[in-house]
Design a protein that fits this description.
Organism: Yoonia maritima
Order of helices and strands: HEHEHEHHEEEHEHEHEEHHHEHHH
Largest sheet: 6 strands, mixed
Strand content: 15-25%
Subcellular location: Periplasm
Radius of gyration: 23 Å
Keywords: Periplasm, Signal
Protein name: TRAP-type C4-dicarboxylate transport system substrate-binding protein
Shape: globular
CATH topology of the largest domain: D-Maltodextrin-Binding Protein, domain 2
Main location: periplasm
Number of domains: 2
Distance between the termini: 64 Å
Length: about 350
Amino acid sequence: MKQKLKRRAVLAGAGAALATPALLSRVNAAEVTLRLHSMLPAPAPMNSQFFVPWADEIREASNGAIDVQLFPSMQLGGKPPQLPDQVRQGICDISWTLPVYTPDRFPIAETLALPFMVTNAEKTSVVMHTLMEEFGQDDYAGIKTLAFHTHDGGKLHTRNGLIHTADDLRGLKLRAPNQATGKMLELLGAETVFFPVTEMVVGLSSGVIDGCCLPYEIVPAFKLQELTGFTSAPAPASRGLYANTFAMLMNQAAYEGMSDDLRGVIDAHSGAGLSQRIGRQFDEFETRGKAAVEAQGNTIGEIASEEIAAWREIAEPVHAEWVEKLNGFGHDGAAVLARANELLDAG
């Protein structure tokens, strides 16, 4: 009886070995190390709550064969606008970038960074991924794209009072999140400057700017709730003021140099599903960021839907200018913008 049981156990073990994917037969030692370069500090939600778990999932799915190492705060050198070139050149293997930091270089990827082109982060991220598949294949030629996404709609965080109407913006010096939103804010009467979010603390603490336009999610990472006392957000039924767009990129040679099964792991952890997942997480980050602003005791106000509708009309020249710019890049600008709005309004 014992011999029969032993024989069955051996056969069962052999069958399990035959059924186990090749990845599971690997020794738990990294065959590939991928350097992921991030502009944000380590505690930022994108690093601590997305990149770290994502790297763990890649490691587990590859049975330890792929080790993704995170380098926050631009530890590999350079400045945030250089990240697309760093990943292309192999200075890093994966990067997370903002197309607006290199204006006009990735035009389709920038389109959803226009004013009032955001609902929430999850839906808008799905829209962006679809738009890139339909129109933006040439934006990142020669680079392996892993995901595209946006954050939730931006809010106005100011030092000295709430914003209810365009009159409240007149004369204020605001850090604009991108060129298109900066033009819109200028049409509304504000004076704008543009610099990466990593320089925000200096701008606010030195008094160079009176406020900024950002989503809640980034506020705690830079303790901006301590530097601003007021937040003004569009009414819930309105589109957000803006959303910056993001691209998660991988060095093409690093991807192609991996074995078929390891490329399969990367493929299974990227694409449309990952874009939606990041967007969903940014909606969660937004809730937590707002909680930090409330805990600070800051005043939060609402910009009425009627006022936002008036702002959207004022911003129409910004959209018209973008259509012409897309036309100049060989796209049908009106078709791209119409498709983006169709996707945003669907459902």
